[in-house]
Amino acid sequence: MTTWFDIRRICPAAGFVLFLLTTFAYAAAAAAEPKRVMLLHSFGRDFKPWSEYAKSIRAELDRQSPWRLDITDHSLVSARSSDEDPEAPFVEYLRALFAKQPLDLIVSIGAPAAAFVQRHRQRLFTNTPMVFTAVEQRRVQYSTLTPNDAVVAVWINYFAAIENILRVLPDTKNVIVVVGTSPIEKFWKEAIGRESEPLSNRIRFSWTDHLSFDELLKEAATLPPQSAIFWELMIIDAAGVVHEGGTPLTRLHAVANAPIFSYDESFFGREIVGGPILMVADTSRQTASVAIRILGGEKPSDIHMPPVQFARPMFDWREMQRWGISESRLPPGSEIFFRDPTAWERYQKEILAICAVLLAQIALISWLIHENRRRNRAEVLARNSISELSHMNRVATAGELSASIAHEVNQPLTGIVARASAARRWLAAEKPDLGKVRVALDQIETAGHRASEIITNVKSMFQRDTQDRSEIDVSKLIWTVMDLVYIDLRKHQIELKTELRDQLPPVFGNRIQLQQVILNLVMNAMDAMRSVQPRVLSIKTALNGGDGVHISIADTGIGIDPSNLDQIFKPLFTTKEHGMGMGLSICRSIVESHNGRISVSAGQERGSIFQLILPTKGAET
């Protein structure tokens, strides 16, 4: 017969494999079996504040536990009275219920449940671990605790809770303490009276344990001024009526003419003003942590937890507004809940977006206003500069035209002198020839008028800011300019070709300015032909579609580089070695001020063609 030792000797690995399989089997069986936990309620599942603690503890156990939990709830109905006789049947019921499937842990919630367990510890679940929670430390009988008991207690500082009322409502004179007639309520009535004794010289306490709840509601509706209500418990009123859940506090809040205060988070959120608060979550977290440690094998008596104390003060903004409590009277570090969000808090992103858009618009409008003013200043400066440059251009041109002007003026003056000498000779003859003298005088008069007209035209050209406008015959305007440059044309052997159409409609403008444009274009054409042959200056006029006069000034000069055609009319741009770059720019300004157009293009063979279109008087209007 083969033994285990023989198997291990024959196959050493088989023993190890069998050990692992056995271990996994036990682990799987253990994992499949849930931990059994009982929550023992003091009065019932719907009695505040313990009902809130039970819900939170159950949630924390599910969150923290690494095992599956089987949680059951049972309520100690007998805690509603001081008669302990009904407890015996309840003990037997629990023993029978869990006889075959013992519990892994019992969590008692509230002081009545804790007292019940301690009274019957020897008969009920002697070896079952126990956690006492949601119980004030003064209600725990520490001397009777067993090694299987752990405590997660709370500490209620009644002095701080009552003093909070005087802090936020310093004019308070009367405090009505709401308590019922159950054993636990009687206990806390005595505790509150003892702890608040130092404040008895400032306020007067009254109690409600002698009133039915209906009588309490009537009294709460007619409280004197400077009163406050302190909510402790209302489990059983003086008429023996049991009150569960949050209904009694809600009904009291609906009729009370004084603010209601309390210290437990279970009552916070609708009816009470607030103050130092016992947080349900703090107790629940610690309770679940202790429970998980015990279920994991830790000995309950080795676990010592400090009592849960008041957290930082909490206040309900709605109740503060109702009773006129200033935020400045709250204790330091207070947290305010249910505050109606301000428009800024509710629409912060939208307000910021709107402000950003408005700022952008303001910045854009400011920039546009700045640019508009800057442009207006620039336009004023430009107009002044153009006027100044126009004047300077005319003055500069005067030097080049001086010889031509002298020649033009000298011609009639020479004729006048010659005819005057002839007339003197005819008069000195023995027989004066009066007919010839009369003709000579007529010619002298004509020559004088011509000289006067030349001087007048030249003078008007060099006057600044001439704005007078009138009807102008374009052909006469061109011939006036040609008279000025006649000598230069002959001097440089430039052939002049003209095709001036007769009976063109007059244009409306400033004669001197338009003379300046024609003169500048002609002088530029002459400069462009200095080094070429042949030299031909062609000037043509025509009607442009019935709404303007077309003037063409063409030369056979060196022409304009095609890359410069777009810049030729820009200020300070010049192709001349000693040019200022303002002549053509001024020409364009003058033409455009007359609602006309000026352009330049290359000649058919060589040279350039400058073309002007000036609106007639009828077309301009």
CATH architecture grouping of the largest domain:
2-Layer Sandwich
| Strands side by side in the biggest sheet | 2-1-3-4-5
Mean pLDDT: 83
Radius of gyration, rounded?
59 Å
Q: Give the CATH class of the largest domain.
A: Alpha Beta
Return the CATH topology of the largest domain.
Answer: Heat Shock Protein 90
CATH superfamily of the largest domain: Histidine kinase-like ATPase, C-terminal domain
Helix content: 40-55%
Query: What is the number of independent domains?
Result: 4
- Cα(first) to Cα(last) distance is 135 Å
Largest sheet: 5 strands, parallel
Our count of helices gives 18
The parts where pLDDT drops under 50 for at least 5 residues are 1-30
What overall form do the CA principal axes indicate? rod-shaped
Estimated share of beta-strand residues: 15-25%
